[in-house]
Amino acid sequence: MKAKIYVTFKKGVLDPQGKAIHASLTHLGIGGVEDVRVGKFMEVRLHEMGKEEARARLEEACRRLLANTVIEDYRVEVEG
Amino acid sequence: MKGRAVKTAVLVFPGSNCDHDAYHALKHVVGVDAEFVWHKESSLSGFGAVVIPGGFTYGDYLRTGAMAKLSPVMEAVRGFAAAGGPVIGICNGFQILLEAGLLPGAMIVNESLRFVCDYVHLRTETERTPFTRGIRRERVLKIPVAHYQGNYYADETVLSALEAKGQVVFRYCDAGGEATPESNPNGSARNIAGICNEAGNVLGMMPHPERCAEGVLGSADGRLLFDAMVSWLGERGR
Fold first, then answer.
1. For position B151, what pLDDT does the model report?
2. Are B120 and B207 in contact (CB under 8 A)?
3. Which of A53, B21, B23, B109 has its CA 20 to 30 A from that of B118?
4. Using CB atoms, which residue from A15, A20, A71 is nearest to B106?
């Protein structure tokens, strides 16, 4: 089974990369973009197990390694 | 000779690259015993102090220090620190201490999005750590930085607590000791260059004292930190 994990900066944490990308988009003439925040996306393959079990394991993984909860939030999506 | 009996551990992770500089500064400049300790080791017994050197442990995968915090030796560092032993994390070593939760806050990429490699000025904010003992408060040190992710972040509550508890050890400043925005090389909150834990025995700093411990290198100010550590250890008979 598969899952997707999104790790994003918390509100209020400066994202210099996002700011630079926003500036570049404006430079390209792509208007109307108010803000860009760069995050991480991870695809995980797991053994078959209950969806809730998979979610619990991956949330633990986020807390202990995949995200730094001082600066980042995470979201786990279990497919299937 | 003073300090000869002290044995210091220089931790080595895959991707550490300032380990030899730290070893050289300790052993050949300051004159204390130093030993490399591989990250798979699970004990630090017999050591008086621990240096977590700079580098790019595990290629900075995921986040700086995120993988290294899981190395067996970090459990030993945790115990060593809890027992009051002096620990200094330099650059990537600071990032590892943050990831391990031994110091509060986190690092994000430099505000400029550039790797910064330059001498900076640091204002000493406290003498309370083993590494700044005897370095007069407000004394300005000249020590180089070399990093891409040295932009120190903590929320306002944590920053206020750090200030209130005297945990800010170094601040980026100009040559006159003023902590100005221009003298901040990476965008760090409140110009913070180094912090310690509440007890004061664990120090993390982005600048590299081991790279400027001898006059021939352009500055010998870094030596002050290691000399302070040796005299601190000597007084406690460690």
1. 98
2. yes
3. B23
4. A71
pLDDT confidence of residue B238: 63
CATH number for the domain harbouring residue B177:
3.40.50.880
Q: Does A13 touch chain B if contact means CB atoms closer than 8 Å?
A: yes
Cα B227 from chain centroid (whole Å): 14
pTM of the model: 0.95
Chain B contact set for A16 (CB, 8 A): 108-113, 151, 187
Three-class DSSP category at B3: coil
| Chain A residue at shortest CA distance from B69 | A65
Residues of B annotated catalytic, as ranges: 91, 208, 210
Considering its fold, how many domains does chain A have in total?
Answer: 1
Question: How far apart (Å, rounded) are the C-alpha atoms in residues B215 and B141?
Answer: 13
Nearest in space to B168 (alpha carbons), one of B136, B141, B191, B145: B191
**Would the CB atoms of B111 and A17 count as touching at under 8 Å?**
no
Q: Among B62, B113, B153, whose Cβ lies nearest the Cβ of A17?
A: B113
DSSP notation for B23-69? HHIIIIII--EEEEEETT----TT-SEEEE--B-GGGG-SSTTTTGG
Residue B152 lies inside a defined structural domain of this protein: yes
d(CA B167, CA B67): 26
Residue B151 lies in a domain: yes
Task: Say whether residue A62 is in contact with chain B using an 8 A CB cutoff.
Answer: no
The answer as to whether B2 is a domain residue is no
ipTM greater than cut 0.85: yes
Task: Please report residues of A whose CB lies closer than 8 A to that of B187.
Answer: 14, 16
Q: In chain B, whose CA is at the least distance from the CA of A12?
A: B155
Name residues whose C-beta falls within 8 Å of residue A79's C-beta, 6 or more positions apart in sequence: A1, A2, A3, A4
Q: Is residue B1 a part of any domain in this protein? A: no
